[in-house]
Write a structure and sequence with these properties.
Largest sheet: 5 strands, antiparallel
Structural class: alpha+beta
Order of helices and strands: EEHEEEHEHEEHEEEEHHEEEEE
Helix content: 10-25%
Number of strands: 17
Number of domains: 2
Strand content: 15-25%
Radius of gyration: 21 Å
Distance between the termini: 53 Å
Shape: elongated
Strand order of the largest sheet: 6-3-4-5-7
Length: 311
C-alpha cells in the first residue's frame, strides 16, 4: 500500500490515503462485524479517492472514512473525460451503485498534478456549513383538512416476486415509472406535532420527514430498535414501510430536489428499504429519484430508511 503521498484540504494536511480502499470494500471494513482487520480502533480515519457517478457529469471525490463515519471532504477538479472513461470501463452496474473505484489513469494524474507539492487549486474543500433544505410550503394542520375516503394499505412484511409487482402497483393506482407511469395516488398530507413527522390522512400513516442514513438491513433494523426505545417523536412503534405504503409516497412529477416525492420530505433518503423480501433472495426498495421499485442485496451498499407508523 502506498503511504507516502499527501494532500492539503483547506488547512488540513492529509497523509492517510489508502489506495487499496474502494466504495465496494467500505461496508465490510467499516460497517460489518467482520472484515475489520485494517481498522485498529473506532477513532481511526483513512482517506480514499472515488468517482461519484450519481449525476450526469462524474466527479472525483476524496472520502474520509472510519467506523460508522463517512464524509466527502473535497472534490478534485479532474478532467471530466478521464472520469467518464473510468465510469465506462466499470461496465453495467445496478442503478444504486454509482460510486466507482478510481483506475490507474486517475491515480497517475493525482500523483502527477495534485498530491504532495502539486497544484492545490484542483482541490475544492466541501463547505461544512449546514445547508437548510427547502421543505416546501407549510403543511396544513390535521384539523384544517376534511378527510377524504380512507384507503387501508397492507402493513405486514411480505415476500414479493417480480411478477407480482405490476399488479400490486396497479391495484392501488400508484405512480411507478416503469409499471404504471400514468398512475397517481392522491395523499392528504398534514403537519405533524413537530418538524420530524408528516401525517397522511388518506392512509392514516405518520411518516418521518427525514429518515436513516445508508446502512445494511441488519444495521437499519438495529437503529429502528434504538429509536423505538428512545421514543422518536414520542412514539415507540416505528417500522419500515411495506411496499404499498412506500409506493404511496411516489409523485409523478419530480420536485425541486430531483425526487418523485412531496417537498415536505427530505432529499437525504433517495431510495429506501421496504418491509419486503424477494425469493430466492434480496430486499425490495423504493427509489424516489427514479420513481420506481427495485430489488437488490441488502448488504452492499445497503439502503436508506424512512420510517412509518399507524397514526
Amino acid at each position: 500500500m502506498e503511504q507516502f503521498h499527501s494532500i492539503r484540504v483547506g488547512g488540513k494536511q492529509i497523509t492517510a490515503i489508502d489506495w487499496e480502499m474502494t466504495p465496494d470494500l467500505t461496508f465490510g471494513t467499516f460497517e460489518s462485524w467482520g472484515g475489520r482487520e485494517r481498522v485498529r480502533n473506532n477513532n481511526e480515519r483513512l482517506f480514499y479517492f472515488f468517482v461519484d457517478g450519481w449525476e450526469e457529469t462524474p466527479k472525483l471525490c476524496l472520502m474520509e472514512r472510519g467506523v460508522k463515519h463517512a464524509k466527502v471532504v473535497a472534490e478534485i477538479a479532474a478532467p471530466v473525460e478521464m472520469l467518464a472513461r473510468c465510469v465506462a470501463a466499470s461496465g453495467k452496474v445496478a442503478r444504486f451503485e454509482q460510486s466507482f473505484a478510481i483506475n490507474g489513469e486517475i491515480h497517475d494524474w493525482l500523483v502527477a498534478n495534485v498530491l504532495d507539492k502539486g497544484e492545490n487549486s484542483f482541490v475544492r474543500p466541501i463547505d461544512e456549513r449546514i445547508e437548510s433544505e427547502d421543505m416546501g410550503a407549510p403543511l396544513p394542520s390535521r384539523n384544517a383538512l376534511v378527510a377524504a375516503e380512507a384507503t387501508s394499505l397492507p402493513s405486514d412484511a411480505a415476500f414479493i416476486q417480480e411478477a407480482e409487482l405490476p399488479g400490486l402497483i396497479r391495484a392501488y393506482g400508484f405512480f411507478e415509472a416503469e409499471h404504471n407511469p400514468e398512475g397517481f395516488f392522491a395523499k392528504q398530507l398534514a403537519a405533524g406535532a413537530d418538524e420530524q413527522t408528516v401525517f397522511d390522512l388518506r392512509t392514516g400513516l405518520m411518516w418521518q420527514r427525514g429518515g436513516l442514513d445508508i446502512a445494511s438491513h441488519r444495521v437499519i433494523s438495529r437503529r429502528i430498535e434504538e429509536l423505538n426505545a428512545a421514543g422518536l417523536a414520542g412514539c415507540h412503534d416505528w417500522r419500515l414501510p411495506t411496499m404499498e405504503e412506500a409506493l404511496s409516497l411516489l409523485e409523478p412529477a419530480v420536485n425541486g430536489k430531483g425526487l418523485h416525492l412531496h417537498p415536505s420530505f427530505s432529499k437525504e433518503q433517495p431510495f429506501i428499504f421496504v418491509a419486503a423480501q424477494r425469493k430466492p433472495g434480496g430486499y425490495w426498495f423504493v427509489d424516489f429519484k427514479q420513481g420506481r421499485a427495485f430489488w437488490a442485496s441488502g448488504t452492499i451498499p445497503g439502503g436508506f430508511a424512512r420510517l412509518v407508523r399507524a397514526a
